[in-house]
Specification:
Number of domains: 2
Mean pLDDT: 79
Low-confidence stretches: 1-5, 36-44, 154-175
Number of strands: 14
Distance between the termini: 143 Å
Radius of gyration: 43 Å
Structural class: alpha+beta
Number of helices: 2
Strand content: 35-45%
Strand order of the largest sheet: 9-8-14-13-12-11
Order of helices and strands: HEEEEEEEEEEHEEEE
Length: 239
């Protein structure tokens, strides 16, 4: 009896230690599970939300030229429509008014351009001209600053046309519209010199034209283009 009684405290100590170890293992296991759950929850809530993308807007490029008295401004807005097309819009402000008046708008291939010459304005601000360029041509277009259309001319006149001594060439081109195509009218007048440049205004309705010899490329005579009558006048003096 005394031997059994002597072992009982050891047995109780062993059982107590086993109970403590079991409790510790259970606690640590529950803690690890809680930490894993927390990490998973944090990971789930921190995934970035995709932001919808919008197409970039291409702003229109703007060029302008002010009249000599500073009271009128010609504005050219250029807007890329696609990789192969560009829209050009001409607007005018007048008499110090900032309101833009639409004069003309067109869409050209990417190979063509429109430019505002330095001397675009006529002295009285009633007209202006622009240059439309492509790889194989350059066209001078004349506009009324008011936006009014030009009247139909019954004939295109030149002082000394190559094929008609009367000085009158029948008009086969459409001249009624928002502009006069000076280059087309020059070709139709059959002047025996190549149109080289249009440099500016000699008077409120007279544009200065420089020419060259077709074969030799030597400088030819100068001409006036009378916008009001759509007539070319050969000059004795070169400009």
């Amino acid at each position: 009896m005394s031997r059994v009684g002597h072992k009982n405290p050891l047995v109780l100590l062993f059982l107590l230690m086993a109970f403590l170890v079991s409790g510790l293992v259970t606690y640590l296991s529950a803690t690890v599970k809680t930490q894993k759950t927390t990490v998973l929850k944090l990971t789930a809530t921190t995934v970035p939300t995709p932001i919808p993308t919008t197409a970039a807007t291409v702003k229109a490029a703007t060029l302008s030229q002010t009249s000599p008295d500073g009271q009128a401004t010609l504005i050219l807005k250029t807007q890329k429509k696609s990789s192969s097309q560009t829209e050009y819009t001409l607007m005018v402000t007048n008499d110090g008014n900032s309101t833009e008046k639409l004069i003309f708008s067109t869409t050209l291939s990417s190979e063509a351009t429109i430019e505002i010459p330095f001397n675009t304005w006529s002295p009285d601000k009633k007209y202006f001209f622009i240059l439309q360029k492509s790889p194989d041509s350059q066209e001078y277009l004349v506009f009324k600053a008011s936006g009014e259309k030009f009247k139909t001319s019954p004939a295109i006149k030149a002082d000394n046309p190559a094929s008609d001594s009367s000085g009158v060439i029948p008009n086969t081109l459409e001249t009624t519209g928002s502009f006069v195509n000076l280059t087309n009218l020059y070709l139709q007048a059959k002047i025996p010199f190549r149109l080289d440049d249009t440099t500016g205004w000699a008077a409120p309705y007279l544009l200065i034209i420089k020419t060259k010899e077709t074969e030799t490329n030597v400088e030819g005579p100068s001409y006036w283009f009378d916008v009001s009558q759509q007539k070319f006048i050969r000059l004795s003096t070169r400009f």
